[in-house]
Structure formats: C-alpha cells, structure tokens
User: What shape does this take?
Amino acid sequence: MYEVQEEPYYLQVSITGDVDHQALYEAHSALMQHPQYPYKNSLWVFDTEFVCGFSNIDMFEMVSRIKALYPVGGTKEKCALLASNNFHYAFLKLFSEEAEREGVPFLVKPFRSFLEAKAWLMTERPASSGMKRAL
Assistant: This one.
C-alpha cells in the first residue's frame, strides 16, 4: 500500500505492507502523475510494516524506468529513501548506488532518520556541484 502527499518542500511517498514490483511501479506512477513531480524533491518512507516482495532485478528495472520516464525540463534534484531497518537500508543503498551508476538525473540517498532525510532534501545543492547524479 502507498500514499503520495505533498509537503511544503518535497513530495512524500509512504510505503507500507507487502509490496511487490507491480505495487512499487504503481506508487512510482502515482508520484510521477503529481503535477509537482518534475520540480519537487521526494521522500520515500518505507515503514516498519513494509515487506519487500520485489527482487534486485525489479530494483534495477526501476532505475531504468525512472531514467526513461523523467520529464524533460525537470528540476528535481534529490530523492531521499527512508528505511526502517538495516536490511532495507542496505537494499536502498544498493538502489542509490545503481541509480548513480546509471546516471539518473537527480541524487538519491538512503537514510535511517526522518529528520536527517528531511534536512537533506531541504538543503540546496551548491551551484558548483556540476552534473546531477542519481535516482
């Protein structure tokens, strides 16, 4: 199950329960349909009830999907991924590294703290940071 909500400085996707690759794609589609998706950073919150029902192959396909469907002219710079346990954090870290390697047009970073994730999303990137990186 998922929910997309607009916060003042980012879009939040809350994920809970058993999530297979189809449910993950549906959550991503709902996020992309939000009118602020190309412009606002995003925070994906995987809560304590989240059960990962998708594989690493599905995860790599998601990276390709994000890259292919990112809107031309988008200015989004960051995506924070909040994990509720160490296993999910490791999985999200792997996802972030793959997103960067594949050249997703915005930074992706995993977190274990909501406050740290939120602070990171609200901090502007330095103008001299050059090309954008992944997720």
